[in-house]
Specification:
It is built from 14 helices and 10 strands. The chain is an alpha/beta fold and 318 residues long. The strands form 2 sheets. An 8-stranded mixed beta sheet has the order 1-2-4-3-5-6-9-10, sandwiched between helices.
Length: 318
């Protein structure tokens, strides 16, 4: 492993199942002695609450009550069978209900990748439930005049994975489930050299590739947490988040698109996700920071991420 340290999975909090909104969320909680100062960490795809393993102890030491859910479709959380049960209304309502469960009016929210998309959505749909927000990797996505999947198909073609997930439902789900360990081993890499685009859907290619590129992001023990979770659940619940993008576009039609919360956006300079050129137009109170890493920011650069987050939180008190 190319990282500086290895996290022992047994050191991660023991989860509880929290009933809310007719489902259950598997929630990992730490720092209960800091009740009254909540921070909620929201994972991306194809991840797990465990992706925040390096941030939890640092935030507890800084005085936070840390709440880390496996969101619907992931881990031991409920996986509804209806595709529409994963739209932005359900995902943000889950986070609002999670605060209700703990008796909090609001909290600081931190999101990565798809978790960032949900945190941006929470700020739009339930603005009173967020006091500050920090998002990693995925900047605010302007709604625009064309539905997101239609736009991506026009720009990137039918093999772009967002489009493929929507236009060919079930195909990627099966390939990824049939090759869970190989897919996640090949995906969770760092220092990956630039490659020419391949024909076909790149995630399917990645799931079938015999030899991974770059360096492993985590130890075998850490990787096994992700592998065992997706071997148990499959990928359909999590991919259904993508299958609601155009539905989300419709839901957000009449909502004020400007986020007025104090915000921090952290980019990985080597991330394939482009940086926003108009972020301050929609998030006027945002600070922007960068780390020299790829997409898996908080796992690839845990110490640097922690320092950046904690410094910003101190400088922007509730």
């Amino acid at each position: 492993m190319a990282g500086a340290e290895v996290f022992d999975p047994t050191d991660f909090p023991v989860p509880t199942l929290v009933p809310l909104n007719d489902i259950h969320l598997e929630v990992f909680e730490a720092g209960q002695q800091n009740a009254g100062n909540p921070i909620v960490l929201c994972h991306g795809w194809p991840e797990h609450a465990f992706s925040w393993r390096y941030q939890v102890p640092a935030l507890v030491a800084a005085g936070y009550h840390v709440i880390v859910p496996n969101q619907r479709g992931y881990g031991n959380s409920t996986r509804p069978t209806e595709t529409t049960a994963y739209d932005i209304r359900y995902l943000t309502n889950d986070l609002a209900a999670l605060l209700d469960h703990y008796g909090y009016r609001d909290a600081t929210f931190v999101g990565h990748d798809w978790g960032a998309m949900v945190v941006w959505g929470l700020a739009l749909m339930h603005p009173a439930r967020i006091n500050r927000l920090i998002n990693l990797s995925l900047p605010y996505q302007e709604r625009g005049v064309i539905p997101w999947i239609e736009l991506m198909e026009q720009m990137f073609g039918v093999d772009h994975y967002f489009v493929h997930f929507n236009r060919k439902p079930g195909v990627a789900d099966k390939v990824l489930s049939d090759n869970t360990h190989r897919f996640l081993r090949n995906l969770y890499r760092q220092n990956v050299p630039p490659q020419e685009p391949e024909a076909g859907m790149f995630l399917i290619n990645l799931a079938k590739a015999e030899i991974p590129l770059g360096d492993p992001l985590m130890s075998d023990l850490e990787l096994e947490v992700f592998v065992s979770a997706f071997e148990s659940t499959g990928f359909t619940g999590s991919i259904n988040w993508y299958r609601n993008l155009d539905r989300n576009w419709q839901i957000l039609a009449d909502i004020d698109p400007v986020i007025r919360h104090r915000s921090l956006m952290i980019y990985g300079d080597q991330d394939a996700i482009p940086k926003s050129k108009n972020l301050t137009q929609f998030v006027p109170r945002v600070d922007v920071a960068n780390l020299d890493c790829g997409h898996w920011i908080q796992q690839e650069k845990p110490e640097e991420t922690n320092l950046m987050i904690l410094k910003w939180l101190r400088q922007n008190p509730v």
